[in-house]
Amino acid sequence: MNPDVMQAPVAAIKPHPMTLHGDTRQDNYYWLNDPENPEVIQYLEAENAYTDAVMAPTKALQEALFHEMKGRIKENDESVPVKVGSYYYYSKYIEGGEYPLYCRKKESLEAEEEIMLDGNEMAKDLPYFSIGGYEVSDNEQILAFGVDTVSRRNYTLKFKNLVTGEILADEIPNTEGGAYAWASDNQTIFYMIRDQQTLLASTVYRHVLGTDISTDVLVYTEEDPQFYMGLGRMKSKKYIVSASEQNGVSTEYRLLDASNPTGEFVTFYPREHGLEYAVEHFQDKFYIRTNAQDAINFKLMEVSEGESNNMANWKEVIPHREDTYLDGMEVFSNHLVLQERRNALIHIRIINQSTKAEHYIQFDETAYDAGISSNPDFETNTLRYAYTSLSTPSSTFDYDMDSRNKTLMKEQQVLGEFNKEDYVSERLFATARDGVKVPISIVYKKGFKRDGSQPLLQYAYGSYGYSIDPYFSAARLTLLNRGFAFAIAHIRGGQEMGRQWYEDGKLLKKLNTFHDFIDVSEYLIQEKWTSKDKLFANGGSAGGLLMGAVTNMRPDLYKGILAAVPFVDVVTTMLDESIPLTTGEWEEWGNPKQKEYYEYMKSYSPVDNVEAKDYPNMLVTTGLHDSQVQYFEPAKWVAKLRALKTNNNLLLFHIDMEAGHGGASGRFKRFHDVALEYAFMLNLVGINE
């Protein structure tokens, strides 16, 4: 690959000074914010043309990689059916199909298949397509589903009569996908509308089938733009829930009896700064997973129906533990299942509701990911859970909570010559600069030499308390089979090691996130897993911020950086309340209108810290329609890097002119993007086949 194959695009410099707290930042590329400006589109297209030209020598390699990855995917594939009411529901893919079909069978898996939605048919001739969840009415006759054809996550809510096959005339645009809740009358549905300025769902409406949507009733408005909203129906089916959550700070649930759709939502417990909770209904009481009373790792409490408004009525069921984070719960008539996180691993705990006897499901590998799966049936003694690791394909198990027997229902089939025994995964710990031990999950193919001679891709996210557990990827085999190791750095800002792990990687402790990643890189080099000229780093979205920060801090450590939809203009974005998601993020990053946060953010914001110096090889990717990290953030970053970098290393920018935050739609199309990333890395270490 030759960066001089053609002139790299040069974005026009149009100074735009921004002054706050007596400090002026100069943004020469602020003009790129306007997607309606033909000059902006022209610049983005020039960047794509340059990337295509530089990567042209790898075209054959990219094609080979694409077909190799696609060739591992079982084209005819279906999910394990889940029984809800009298039907088994499942999704499936057919040969050549990019999109799923959503199906069901009545009473028995031998019954005739009903195709509720055919994604391939619905997506015909559309550049982008996504079904955003569905809900079936209690009488099992009406399907509510959302469709997005732009990739802005604005879903049009539609309805289908599953008896006649007719699509109903009712059609509601700009809803939050998947957040639909039927009342028990089979006629009334609740949905959320997204504010088109902020792209946050802020209102809940009630719709009755067959009526004009202009007459739909507004039942709740979230006035605080820092709160995200959710909507759904509890597993017991008794209550519809409208919830508001300020990420990592505060929660408020509002409940409505599903048999009384025109009634009023009642607040379970009013929001308090610092109080978080999640609620499940069981018989005549509620279980509450909460951080109340300084339970930073959360504990389990219970309260009788109708008494939740007074916390004095809440009784402790499982106390707070310093070493264990209570991650989630699933309630059955005979069992209570808890998902816990300890020492960067998931544990699943089963408690018998009547005898209180308890045990944990046993997992064998040193690093893995497990989780409670879809369990809509309240009366069963069978728990469905998911399991995977860096070397074990995604697996679905049914577990008898009484006999403790587990049955493998499905393991993701990997076509070609795949044998999981050929790969080794390990759990390592690197010591960060402040003495904290940072977990690392690593995988490689047997025969990998730990002498510093082999390439390694290091990945992390590290924000919002979102944990990146060790998961299997069939596409990743393409790298492992060519001598790469792959490592996930479980850095602070995630929640792998409990809630404090998250608290220590946000707001005025955000630098820990970047330092942890760099210190893991140093450890992997020191322990001869790789070397500076073979180490690559990858992250997306808030993980793209991580890439931008470490690139500025330690450009010498990496051969190449892959930054996907990167959040890199932190100060400017957090000051602009018109940008989607900004206000809801202040509890994560801080509000730069306060001088302390402004100065701290500015110290690491990638765009603000680009300097005249050598940078590693870089591939930056984005989508023009991204609603979460707007395309202009990476565009400004790349333009500034081009103007200031002092070496000839590659700087490539690829913009999907049809996609948003999640990239291309369709199960195979996305492998073209992965092939581009892999070819970029492989070529840089001299692997061209």
UniProtKB/TrEMBL annotation:
Belongs to the peptidase S9A family. Residues 471-686 form the Peptidase S9 prolyl oligopeptidase catalytic domain. SUPFAM superfamilies: alpha/beta-Hydrolases, Peptidase/esterase 'gauge' domain. Residues 10-412 form the Peptidase S9A N-terminal domain. Keywords: Hydrolase, Protease, Serine protease. It comes from Arcicella rigui. This is S9 family peptidase.
